[in-house]
């Protein structure tokens, strides 16, 4: 006789999701330890800014793909604020524009960064996989994959403090992206977590949501693995990857 698994109670299910972050979130990656403690060279910081831009630029595309599948107007209204957070409502506004100010602050030409030249192949594959996941998976795992935002505020606080302490380029203007996320991310994740908790109605649903969150942590971790391999140790930049003399401000 097969014994069917029981649905986890809400408190236990939320604890399961949070444990994924405790074990797998990319704040534990050695590249972030280097970055936040001031041990990155300026070229390593630039490589991070360039490659992370690709991720930042795809977030509103991911969210637009999600909205395109939503039949509930209320959910669409709630979700579209995420696109505005990154794209802004006018030129020069939003998270992507703030990221390009960070790029300029570290000595990169923002037009070069926005061109997406120099993106590491593994970064491109990982980020594209995330967009495809949200576009193609059922709504519950597509939504659950965004719950890495549960863990983001702490890494932003650590990053703000570390950058301001250790790097000359850091100022309220150049690191404004992270300050804004401290207020934007909590409202997003509060809605997303409540939605996932409400719609994960079976043990299989809960497993799918947890697997989606694990997938997203893998996407984030893979990007840092690519950076570490190319620009830290052993320092072999793959074909097409950014070279330190490229894309600098005159």
UniProtKB/TrEMBL annotation:
EC numbers: 1.3.3.11
Listed InterPro entries: Haem_Oase-like_multi-hlx, PqqC, PqqC-like, Thiaminase-2/PQQC
Annotated pathway: Cofactor biosynthesis; pyrroloquinoline quinone biosynthesis
Domain Thiaminase-2/PQQC per the UniProt entry, residue ranges: 15-225
Highest taxon above the source species: Bacteria
SUPFAM superfamilies per the UniProt record, alphabetical: Heme oxygenase-like
Gene Ontology MF annotations: pyrroloquinoline-quinone synthase activity
A matching Pfam family: TENA_THI-4
Catalytic activity: 6-(2-amino-2-carboxyethyl)-7,8-dioxo-1,2,3,4,7,8-hexahydroquinoline-2,4-dicarboxylate + 3 O2 = pyrroloquinoline quinone + 2 H2O2 + 2 H2O + H(+)
HAMAP family: PQQ_syn_PqqC (MF_00654)
Function: Ring cyclization and eight-electron oxidation of 3a-(2-amino-2-carboxyethyl)-4,5-dioxo-4,5,6,7,8,9-hexahydroquinoline-7,9-dicarboxylic-acid to PQQ.
Protein name from the UniProt record: Pyrroloquinoline-quinone synthase
Gene name of the record: pqqC
């Amino acid at each position: 006789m097969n014994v069917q698994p029981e649905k986890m109670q809400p408190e236990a299910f939320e604890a399961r999701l949070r444990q994924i972050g405790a074990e797998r979130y990319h704040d534990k990656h050695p590249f972030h330890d280097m970055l936040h403690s001031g041990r990155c060279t300026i070229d390593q910081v630039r490589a991070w800014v360039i490659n992370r831009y690709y991720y930042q630029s795809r977030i509103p595309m991911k969210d637009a793909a999600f909205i395109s599948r939503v039949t509930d107007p209320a959910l669409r209204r709630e979700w579209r604020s995420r696109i505005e957070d990154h794209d802004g409502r006018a030129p020069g506004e939003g998270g992507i524009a703030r990221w390009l100010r960070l790029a300029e602050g570290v000595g990169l030409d923002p037009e070069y960064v926005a061109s997406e030249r120099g993106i590491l192949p593994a970064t491109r594959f990982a980020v594209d996989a995330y967009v495809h996941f949200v576009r193609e998976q059922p709504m519950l795992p597509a939504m659950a994959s965004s719950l890495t935002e549960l863990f983001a505020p702490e890494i932003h606080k650590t990053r703000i403090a570390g950058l301001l302490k250790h790097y000359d380029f850091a100022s309220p203007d150049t690191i404004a992206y992270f300050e804004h996320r401290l207020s934007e991310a909590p409202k997003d994740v509060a809605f997303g977590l409540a939605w996932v908790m409400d719609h994960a109605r079976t043990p299989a649903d809960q497993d799918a949501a947890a697997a989606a969150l694990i997938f997203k942590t893998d996407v984030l971790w893979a990007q840092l693995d690519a950076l570490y391999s190319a620009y830290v140790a052993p320092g072999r930049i793959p074909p097409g990857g950014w070279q330190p003399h490229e894309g600098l401000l005159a």
